[in-house]
Amino acid sequence: MTSTLITGFFSYLGTTSDYFVILVLLFATFRQKSQVRPIILGAYLGNALLVGAALLIGGMLKQIPAEWVLGLLGLVPVAIGLKNYFSNEEEEEGEGEAFVTKVQETPNQRIVLTVVLMTIAGCGADNLALYIPYFSIVNWAALPIIFLMFTAILTICIFSAYRLAKVQKVQDLFERYGDLMQLLVYVALGIYILFDAGTVTHLLSLL
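Predicted structure:
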C-alpha cells in the first residue's frame, strides 16, 4: 500500500502545478471576501468531479479515452477568455474600473461554475490520463487515505494561491490589465492543452 500512496502523492502533486497558476488568476480576479468561498467551493467540486470520473472509468471500464479527445477540453478556457474579453470590449474608457466593477457584481453561482469549468478544462486531460490507469490497479481499500491525501495537497495549493493573489502588486496588475490578462492566460492555457494532448496534431493528420 505504501508504494500506491507514494505514486498517488506524486501524481496528484504533479497535476497541481498548472492548477496553481489558474487559482492565482481566479483569486486575483475575484478578490472580495464574499467571492473567496465560491472559488474554494468550485476548486473542491471541480477536483472531486475529475477524481470521481477517473475512479469510475478506471475502476469499472478500465479504458483510457484517447488523449487527443481529452485535449478538446482546451477549448473551454479559450471560449471563456474570448467571451469575457469581448463582452466588455465597449468599455475601453476606464478599463480598470470597469473590470473591477464587473467582477464585483459577478454572482457567486457563476463564480463557482467558472472555477469548476476552469478546473476541468485546465487539469482534465492531464489528471484523467494519470488517474485512470492509477485507479484501475489501486486497492480500493486504500481510497479513503488517497482521498484525504489529495484533499490535503489541494488545500495547501488553494491556500498558497490565495496568499500570492493577496500581494498588492499582483492585485494592482489585475486592476489595470485584468481583462487582457484573463484573455491571454485563458487562451494560452487552452492552446497549450490542445497541443500538449496531441489534439491539434491528430486533427491535422485527418486533413
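Summary: DSSP finds nine helices and no strands in the chain.
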